[in-house]
Specification:
The complex is a heterodimer of chains A (211) and B (280). With 211 residues, chain A is an all-alpha fold. Chain A has a domain of 93 residues. Chain A has six helices and two strands; from the N terminus they run H-H-E-E-H-H-H-H. Chain A has a two-stranded antiparallel ribbon with strand order 1-2. In chain A, a hairpin with a 2-residue loop joins strand 1 and strand 2. In chain A, helix 1 packs across helix 2, helix 3 crosses helix 4 and helix 5 crosses helix 6. Chain B has two domains: 61 residues; 200 residues, 3-Layer(aba) Sandwich (Rossmann fold), CATH 3.40.50. Chain B is built from eleven helices and six strands. Chain B starts with a helix and ends with a helix. In chain B, helix 3 crosses helix 10. The chains are: A mainly alpha (211), B alpha/beta (280). Chains A and B meet through helix 2, helix 4 and helix 6 of A and helix 2, helix 4, helix 6, helix 8 and helix 9 of B.
Chain lengths: 211, 280
């Protein structure tokens, strides 16, 4: 019985969301606000128990786990306060007078992520990709790939006028770019249609039992 | 009034109804359209087949309910494939909404294959931190995920006693809807720890990741509902993705017709407008 009730609620909400395609209406607005409210509540709880509780509350206020002294029970309890305070400083931007203090936290956050990301990104997205495109011109596929790569790179080379050989290569680059955009658009359509299929399947299968 | 101007102002709700009909009709009356297996999907299947029985594999589930139609079939089929091959599964999530979605798949499949929680599979749940978490897993997975999804300490889970870091994971299947996801796994994990990594992504994201397949950084790739359907067919368990592919194909054909029709109307009305301008 509970399954039927929950499935019916899901179906009504699905239809409410899609009713927007006809025109904006109170059913759509209700569903929209429900999603926003539930998501905010869900993520608040998840983030509290995954970020704040284990990283700040537990290390500071718990005394020990098993035989291990932690938090106020150890001499290093104050270390956990540092990221907590840095996190709180981010909220100073709500007070224009003290907003600049939040930049310290932001600076550490951005610097840390940049440091962690720079080397792997260079390795994974630049060096490995260059290596993967250094191919022998022994097959049509490889020739196609190299021509496409050179053409596209040439199109984004703005230090010289696109005339002569450079112009031809840039035009070839445009063709490859257009094919790339077309493929991306096709995949996007496929993705959106998949979501519609998922919802219609839910309505026809789980709710109405027609399939 | 120029020829074609009426049809250019067609109510877009007419198009919505046609698209809905194109989805509903094949779902009610399956057409069973043929489907080829693409090489990146075949590579995923072959990679899982190549992992020795008894090995530990990881399902990295990084998606939320809004992308379930595309990604849940991938996760389900991977779990089925791994269980069928007697591989043991460790699930780890970088998205907070993922653990219950994976539970939905693990429950019935573990029952079907007679697999036991803690010995044959474990769901470590969600851990915040994105790339920091990935780097932590490279050093120690038990320290990064000290408890499982249910709150049990990993020290009490037999399967986790055999897992220290990525050296103990024979294969990683990353099912991803965005960031953190496949890109971060390739950048932070594959490039540093050289893990055997494959990915299943939404169709929107798939074009971004094909270069990683070509360079060998990804063993294979499942792109959107089609990738999921192909994988289901390879594993011999056609499911939600396969049944949705008829509707997908019909809608695609309809959209192609819309594009052709739209272009014809555009050129006809442009010519008509030019003639009108000349007459004036």
């Amino acid at each position: 019985m509970a399954t039927i009730i929950w499935t019916t609620i899901g179906a009504i909400l699905t239809l409410s969301v899609y009713s927007f395609l006809y025109k904006d209406n109170p059913f759509y607005k209700f569903a929209e606000h429900l999603v926003v409210g539930i998501s905010a509540g869900y993520y608040l709880v998840i983030y509290y128990f995954n970020f704040i509780q284990p990283n700040v509350v537990a290390p500071v206020f718990l005394l020990r786990i098993g035989n291990e002294a932690i938090g106020l029970g150890s001499s290093m309890w104050w270390l956990a306060l540092i990221p907590g305070i840095l996190g709180l400083l981010l909220y100073t931007r709500f007070f224009p007078k003290f907003g600049w203090v939040g930049r310290w936290s932001l600076g550490i956050y951005v610097g840390g992520y940049a440091g962690l990301g720079l080397s792997p990104i260079m390795q994974a997205r630049v060096l490995n990709q260059i290596g993967a495109n250094a191919l022998p011109l022994t097959s049509i596929t490889n020739v196609f790939l190299i021509v496409g790569l050179l053409g596209t790179l040439t199109y984004f080379f703005f230090s010289m006028k696109h005339k002569g050989v450079l112009g031809v290569l840039a035009r070839v680059g445009i063709v490859f770019l257009m094919v790339g955009f077309g493929a991306s658009f096709g995949y996007t359509v496929m993705s959106r249609v998949s979501l519609l299929i998922g919802r219609v399947s839910f309505l026809l299968h789980d709710w109405l039992h027609l399939i | 009034m120029a020829k074609g101007s009426d049809i250019r102002n067609i109510d877009r709700r007419f198009i919505f109804v046609l698209v809905l009909a194109a989805v509903v009709w094949p779902l009610l009356h399956p057409l069973r359209l043929p489907m080829d297996i693409s090489p990146p999907v075949q590579s995923v299947y072959d990679a899982v087949e190549a992992v020795p029985a008894g090995s530990i594999v990881m399902l990295a589930a990084d998606y939320s309910p809004d992308t379930m139609p595309e990604l849940q079939p991938m996760a389900e089929t991977f779990i089925r494939h791994a269980f069928r091959r007697d591989l043991r599964i460790v699930v780890a999530c970088l998205w907070p909404a993922s653990p219950p979605l994976v539970e939905q798949a693990l429950g019935p499949l573990s029952e079907e294959f007679g697999k036991e929680y803690g010995t044959d599979y474990v769901n470590l749940g969600y851990m915040a931190g994105g790339i920091v978490t990935l780097l932590g897993m490279g050093a120690s997975i038990p320290e990064t995920f000290p408890t499982d999804y249910g709150g049990t300490s990993v020290d009490e889970i037999p399967l986790m006693l055999e897992v220290e870091n990525f050296d103990d994971i024979a294969f990683v299947m990353e099912v991803s809807a965005g960031t953190p996801g496949t890109r971060e796994w390739v950048q932070q994990v594959q490039s540093r720890f050289r893990v055997n990594l494959a990915s299943g992504t939404t169709a929107v994201g798939a074009p971004n990741f094909y270069p990683y397949v070509q360079s060998g950084q990804l063993t294979g790739l499942l792109g959107g509902l089609k990738g999921a359907a192909e994988y289901e067919i390879l594993v011999g368990a056609p499911g939600d993705a396969t049944s949705g592919m008829d509707a997908q194909s019909v809608v695609h054909a309809l959209i192609v017709c819309f594009i052709i029709f739209g272009n014809i109307v555009y050129f006809v009305s442009r010519r008509s407008e030019k003639r009108l301008a000349q007459d004036v």
